[in-house]
């Protein structure tokens, strides 16, 4: 699941790191902000659709096409020469990201907690994978276009590996097969508990009544809204800091805070603590919170 976590958000981190290539193809237009906005808007809008209708679509029918579309969108970034065309590709990538992310998260939610923990850690590691591979490629190839083509080939190879592992290993795993079988035959969780955990379970409130299908999201929102605010703050950091951070790495300025390298340091700091924060729930002291 960690590998799938890396794959689902890799397109967005890759989009941010194509900034040097976009500056060569579209000089003086600052298109990275436009592309990031289009991606996130499409991602958010599609995410709402996935919440509403996602459960009616089989997992492979959502995950496999979504990962293929994400890979195809990455490939198109280096071949399209129109701002509008690249923006459309960003919208497609954001839409596919919502389907793959939402579907895999939903699948992990029906599995033992170790699956979700691995998936979440993979999401955090994704930015490090993208940035490290990009830097190594830039070191090996000085030309912007050549580096972009080689890096894109590396990312496409990663998506091909992820697809093969999902189809051959994840989708056929006994735990996943049980989840899909329960979804098809309509059995309830009381028939045969799927999640077997040694941790203490939190008993439901005595006066709590089962929520209807329409009210369930609102009930969940009322419980987790503080964590949603943290997620929104995370998105704001993504919007304000990440796009364009590597466009002008000028290190000869007088003040370090004005240097492009300062923003790169912020990026690494953000990614590092993001990964650490995602790993904390795996520690014994944080379980059951």
Summarize the amount of helix as a percent range.
Answer: over 70%
Level-2 CATH architecture of one domain: Up-down Bundle
CATH-defined fold name of one domain: Growth Hormone, Chain: A
The H-level CATH homologous superfamily of one domain, spelled out, is MFS general substrate transporter like domains
**Which structural class is indicated by helix and strand composition?**
mainly alpha
**N- to C-terminal distance:** 22 Å
**What fraction strand?**
under 5%
Order of helices and strands: HHHHHHHHHH
CATH class group of one domain: Mainly Alpha
Task: State the shape.
Answer: globular
The Rg value, from CA coordinates, equals 21 Å
Major sheet: none
DSSP strand tally: 0
Unreliably modeled segments: 184-207, 246-253
GO molecular function: nucleoside transmembrane transporter activity
Pfam family, one: Nucleoside_tran
Family: Belongs to the SLC29A/ENT transporter (TC 2.A.57) family.
Subcellular location: Membrane
């Amino acid at each position: 699941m960690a590998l799938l976590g890396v794959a689902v958000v890799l397109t967005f981190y890759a989009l941010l790191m194509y900034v040097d290539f976009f500056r060569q193809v579209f000089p003086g237009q600052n298109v990275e902000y436009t592309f990031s906005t289009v991606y996130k808007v499409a991602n958010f809008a599609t995410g709402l659709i996935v919440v509403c209708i996602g459960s009616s679509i089989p997992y492979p029918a959502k995950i496999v096409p979504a990962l293929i579309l994400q890979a195809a969108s990455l490939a198109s970034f280096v071949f399209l020469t129109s701002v509008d065309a690249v923006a459309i590709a960003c919208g497609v990538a954001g839409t596919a990201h919502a389907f793959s992310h939402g579907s895999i998260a939903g699948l992990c939610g029906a599995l033992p907690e170790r699956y979700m923990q691995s998936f979440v850690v993979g999401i955090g590691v994704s930015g490090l994978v993208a940035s490290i591979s990009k830097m190594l490629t830039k070191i090996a190839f000085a030309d912007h276009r050549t580096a972009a083509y080689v890096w894109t080939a590396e990312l496409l190879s990663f998506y091909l590996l992820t697809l093969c592992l999902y189809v051959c290993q994840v989708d056929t795993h006994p735990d996943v097969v049980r989840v899909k079988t329960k979804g098809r035959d309509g059995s309830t969780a009381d028939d045969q508990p799927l999640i077997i955990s040694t941790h203490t379970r939190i008993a439901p409130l005595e006066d709590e009544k089962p929520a209807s299908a329409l009210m369930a999201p609102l009930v969940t929102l009322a419980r987790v809204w503080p964590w949603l605010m943290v997620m929104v703050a995370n998105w704001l950091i993504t919007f304000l800091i990440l796009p364009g951070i590597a466009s002008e790495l000028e290190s000869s300025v007088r003040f370090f805070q004005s240097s492009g390298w300062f923003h790169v340091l912020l990026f690494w700091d953000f990614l590092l603590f993001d990964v650490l924060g995602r790993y904390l729930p795996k520690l014994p002291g944080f379980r059951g919170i």
